[in-house]
Design a protein that fits this description.
Distance between the termini: 63 Å
Shape: globular
Largest sheet: 11 strands, antiparallel
CATH topology: Lipocalin
Number of helices: 3
Number of strands: 11
Order of helices and strands: HHEEEEEEEEHEEE
Radius of gyration: 20 Å
Length: about 190
Amino acid sequence: MIKKYLQLGFILIGCSSLFAQIEKPSEIFWNNLKKHCGKAYEGKLPEHITRDDFAGKKLTMHVKSCSVNEIKIPFNVGDNYSRTWILTKKDGIITLKHDHRHDNGTSETITFYGGTNTNYGFKDFQMFPADQATATLIDYASTNIWWITLDDKTFSYNLQKAGSKTPFNVYFDLTKEIETPPAPWGWGTPR
């Protein structure tokens, strides 16, 4: 009888180590994004987006900095280099924050807002509902949901605001690398 329980125990230990080796979807997403580190891409808005501050301007993203638990992606609108998306990873859960800077490198009043995925997400899709820090900083953004999609051809950044019938989307073509844009405002300056 003891021999039977020992055999069952070894089987369970073997199964648990097998499950431990299965890569989390968030880790697959993270590693696929890191493959683009150092590369820049041009983006476009879908036709339903009619933001005057984006109209006719070149949209670029640059996967500028990658480490084990942090990826920084400046998002440029024309010659405005104020925006950087910061993704961090802790225990397999990804957080998105928005770092906004003035051209002199100082932080804007509204900066470092975003959210944390509530689970591991999917290998090609991560969602970030607004966190409490965001709700405190920008009360009208407390119900915002951001998400990023990633596959072999496209990276998309998306935002849905409560009460809005249409989301904000920008799509980047990962099949056509472009020249690296200038460094974002405040790059290297402490927060």
